[in-house]
Amino acid sequence: MKLNDQISKTRKEKGFTQEELADLANISTRTIQRIESGESIPRSFTIKAIAKALELPYETLLTKGIPLPIQPTGNTIHFLKMLNLSSFSYILVPWVHFLVPYFILKRQKNLNEAITACCRKIIRQQVSWTIALHLLMLFTVVLNYMQVTVFNNFHTISYLWPVFVMYFLNAGIIIYNGMLIQRKYQPVDCQLLTGE
Q: What is the largest CA-CA distance in the chain?
């Protein structure tokens, strides 16, 4: 049984609401909600506080097949930031730039599930950006073709406008992800890129 399911099950067996458990464990209700929904991987001190509030030995949670979450180290956080920054390779190779963070992720070993999921999300965003850029360029071609052939209007849209818009949009996405990484890995529970 997963940690979040075990906590939720035990809380209900004890007859506690999420608010009551949060008060007993001296943590926020939102943290309990995130842990039980699986959005958050709690740190060991949070698990200990919850175990104490539920009157369970901390070791009991570990012996029931619930793995202790691996907390991100400074090196792991640095890796995540560098993977995110590697997405800026779109400036040089916009059609296959997502391969850069992909290969960086493939070479890295021993990442926990939350970090790996975050890395995959960054790569998926870059693949989506590449597809959107190509669709926008195709739309510009079709629009210019219709302007000239159907409407006999020779005022066409420059192909640089969609490229500039998409380039600035992707820079904003990368910077936003970097800010989320920085904010989410403070000394509180890790809830990376949930957008909250």
A: 79
Amino acid 132 reads A
The pLDDT-based confidence of 67 (bands split at 50, 70, 90) is very low
Chain centre distance of CA 95: 23
Distance CA 49, CA 113 (A): 23
What's phi and psi for 135, nearest 5 deg? -65, -40
8-37 pLDDT, tens digit each: 888 898 899 999 999 999 999 998 998 888
Helices then strands, counting H and E runs in the chain, come out as: 9, 0
Measured between alpha carbons, how far apart are the two ends of the chain, in Å? 27
DSSP one-letter code for 27: S
Please give the Cα distance from 74 to 55 (Å, whole number).
33
Cα 104 to Cα 195: distance, rounded to the nearest angstrom = 24
* Beta strand ranges found along 76-183 (DSSP E): none
Grouping H, G, I as helix, E, B as strand and the rest as coil, residue 137 is helix
0.70 surpassed by pTM: no
**pLDDT tens digits, residue range 119-169?**
999 999 999 999 999 999 999 999 999 989 988 888 888 889 999 999 999
